[in-house]
Amino acid sequence: MSEPTGNGRRMSRRSLFGLGAAGAAVAGAGAVGARALLDEPPVAHAAATSDPYPFYGEHQAGIVTPAQDRLHFVAFDVTTGDRAELIDLLQEWTAAAARLTQGKEAGSFGAVGGDPAAAPDDTGEALGLPASGLTLTVGFGPSLFDERFGLAARRPAALADLPKFPGERLVPEISGGDLCVQACAHDPQVAVHAIRNLARIGFGRVSVRWSQLGFGRTSSTSRAQATPRNLMGFKDGTNNLKLEDAGLLREQLWASAGDGAAWMAGGTYLVTRKIRMTIETWDRTSLTEQEQIFGRDKGEGAPLGAKREFDPLDFAARGPDGQPYIAPDAHVRLAHPSSHGNAHLLRRGYNYVDGSDGLGRLDAGLFFIAYQRDPRKQFVPVQMRLAREDPLNEYIQHVSSGLFACPPGVRDASDYWGRTLFTP
């Protein structure tokens, strides 16, 4: 969430092993100080994409952190029924995550420093690579709050199961999960390395339920970032919640003790949706129809009838023919906060391409990620209206869904992910 601490950059894996400076030091997304959350004017800093983000803080990193370029998201099923083993796992994961996000190996002996006759405590594929802005964010699914661990009474009301939306065709095998970990980084190998090592540490206590790789972020979470494009070629997330929106973040993103689950104070709720696009059909659709469906022009990203991307959306504006520039069923109108009681989402989704389906069609689309204070009041009403009225539905299909409660951040080395849940 904030700029790297200390008098200089944290030592990278490459420098730790005497292999020289990190290769890619391209100026990347600006990191903004924690003062943004205290209503002080944010100050953007040019951070190299090799730099680390702090792991400890009031909130988990990887939420309002300026969105990185790559994603490896994984959902786990907990295979142990022992509450103490689950807590031990979360403590071990937290310790490993604190190291990994700072450009270190997962364990103190690393990939090559331990007993040669024993398995290493790091898999080694990230040796020589810098931290690359890695963030690791954990969440707890509704299924974790069953009878196994004595957590049923502590399930937040906001973690209510999502309703069935019209038209969705969810695949159970790639939906849900007891736990999730979101790894974001500027280097895909760093993100994959982190997930691989957490899965290795969890062996015998968790199993991977499903995972998703993503590239090319489809949202900006800081005003220091340019708006990216989705695989339909349109700028995505222009009006997204941003790191700098301190007041809106308190109102729309972060849970508070007064919401009914005190252990979630400082946390947030995550919804994931894998949305497959029928790319080939979309690519044969006229530019005019594409723009009318979205309600924005494809080049600049401006609202129809306006000139610039960040011009206000004027739903009353009409063209020379007397018709609204932005159609009543345009995506931007249906999803706009004004249509849903001022409900905002903080989106940080990614494009994906998972090969082809065997019929010459790309298996590609959007891995949608949205954080919010209460999905019942934010994601659910927005998605219900989109599912019923959005003409974009002709070109997309929701195939996977996930819902997770993301606890508050880790305070220091004595703390761990989910401590407030297990130690009231």
From TrEMBL:
Keywords: Heme, Iron, Lyase, Metal-binding, Oxidoreductase, Peroxidase, Signal. Its EC number is 1.11.1.-. GO terms for molecular function: peroxidase activity. PANTHER family: DEFERROCHELATASE, DEFERROCHELATASE/PEROXIDASE. Its cofactor is heme b. Residues 227-410 form the Dyp-type peroxidase C-terminal domain. It catalyses: heme b + 2 H(+) = protoporphyrin IX + Fe(2+). Pfam families: Dyp_perox_C, Dyp_perox_N. This is Deferrochelatase. Binds 1 heme b (iron(II)-protoporphyrin IX) group non-covalently per subunit. SUPFAM superfamilies: Dimeric alpha+beta barrel. Belongs to the DyP-type peroxidase family. Involved in the recovery of exogenous heme iron. Extracts iron from heme while preserving the protoporphyrin ring intact. Residues 60-215 form the Dyp-type peroxidase N-terminal domain. It is found in: Cell envelope.
